Amino acid sequence: MYEILALGYEFLAEFVPFFLMLMLLRRKRGRFAPPFTKGHYVLPVVFALYVMAVLYITNPGSLYDAVTVKPEHMADRINLIPFSNEIDWVGYGLNVVMFVPFGFLLPLIWKNLGRLPRVAAAGLGFSTIIEVGQLFSFRGTDVDDLLMNTLGAVIGLLIYKLWDRLTGSRYQLEGLKAGELAAYLLAIFGGRFFLFYRLGLIRLFYGG
Question: What is the pTM of this model?
Answer without folding.
Answer: 0.90
